[in-house]
User: Fold these one by one.
Assistant:
Number 1:
Amino acid sequence: MARLFSLLLCLYVLCLSGCGTTGQENSDTGPLLPLPVAGAVHDPDNDAFMKAVAGYIAQKGGPAQSRYEFTRIDLDGDGRREGLLLLKSPHGVWCGVDGCRMAIFRAYDDDFALLSEVTPVRGPLTVSESRTHGWRDLIVRVSGRMDLETRDAFLRFDGRTYPASPLRQPALYASSALPGVRIFP
């Protein structure tokens, strides 16, 4: 019994000695600790995005069973992935003959806020490597209208939002050659 007590006492002393300093002390501040990573941000999770989507659909009067596609990608280079939502059905609520509604949500540490609504939009959409006012340019398909030829259009951030409609935006005829991420195929 005494031997077991001695063994436990030795283990206790060894454990306590592991809690001591490593010799890297600064007399003014105590032990040195790792510095926080500069620019570290919290990227909100998909549950937070789904909550924002449900709130958006309810606010717009859409049915809770609305169908949509979404993706998360960092548009402004802050380390948080924004949310892009392309609504698909019911068609009469979210879409017309020339495309559907897309909503862009800005990501914050724990939630999302609506940044832009763009309509009409058809896939595919490309999130370009090029930037305007620090935000990635978007390339969307314009088609389905008799008065406009089918083309891709640039959506450039104006410092506050993306354009509400791609119909009057500059045409881009060689978008497949531009570097970027293709979504909503």
Number 2:
Amino acid sequence: MNTLLAILTFLGTFAIMEFMAWFIHKYIMHGVLWVLHKDHHQKDHDSWFERNDAFFLFFASLSMFFLMFAKEYFWLATPIGLGILAYGIAYFVVHDIFIHQRFKWLRNIDNAYARGVRRAHKIHHKHLGKEKGENFGMLVVPKKYFK
């Protein structure tokens, strides 16, 4: 029973992170912390790193907190921490590697879903300002982008 609960907690955490990524992106990154996210839309530097990468540190710290400290007091902290970590890895692969190609991997993937993901994200990036911070989730892309 504990194993099933741990698996469901891991999967639930991963799913909740998709919502949290959308919410934080729309209301925080394109809101009060635009100063950190702005360089992701408007390249104003020559560095490979972006101020936007600071958001990674927050989520990595949250995952480490659950994996290292909270498990002493709450046994489900481990699957929660692993769910956050798994989402972070998936987000990095899809967003930074696949879409923005910060590493030159996964460049030759070409199918309807891949084109839809790239097209939806490109439409988001056409807005260079703080407004219109709406972005679709990493895994759910409306059918209108599949052409």
Number 3:
Amino acid sequence: MIPGRWFWPAFGLMVLLQLALPGRMILQHEQTLRQGTEHRFKTAPVDPYDAFRGRYVALGFPDTQARPSAELAALDEAERQRLDTLYATVERGDDGFSSLGQLLLAPPAQGDYLRLPADRVSLMPGDGPARVDLPFDRYYLTEGLAPEAERLYRERRSADAEAGQAWLLVRLRAGRAVPAGLYIDDRRIEDLARTPGD
């Protein structure tokens, strides 16, 4: 038991520590939204009958492969199993859309990258391409816009999945990714969902 004179300072310290972690996470999220580099990722249709769970749109992406670096490809299966974190470079194509580049054991010295838990990466034996579950597979909306946004997303993506009409704007900063907008035909889905018949 803590003596009486130390109780309140110890209690105050405990409260501050409990608030520090969520506060740090919120600060990092907001810094990424304000200062992160913009990247556009094409989306692909998810099961049209289960595109919404609660208040978010479940997103799929047509290209989620990355090339393992030579150092990563040289690891044996036991060494790969011990990995906690991997880093994927992000490359912007000529069409303005971004995709994953190389999969690394450490953050690159320059350029944008994603910090990925190793369990979100499916490595193939040798140097074959790795499949990555992107950390931004949900786009949250308000409850009032969710049903119409879901309908629009399903309708547009089912009609022409190859045209790249739907895309997600993501901001990247120091390996963190924050979705900043879901677009259909270069218009935010929130704006489309508010306009009946559009």
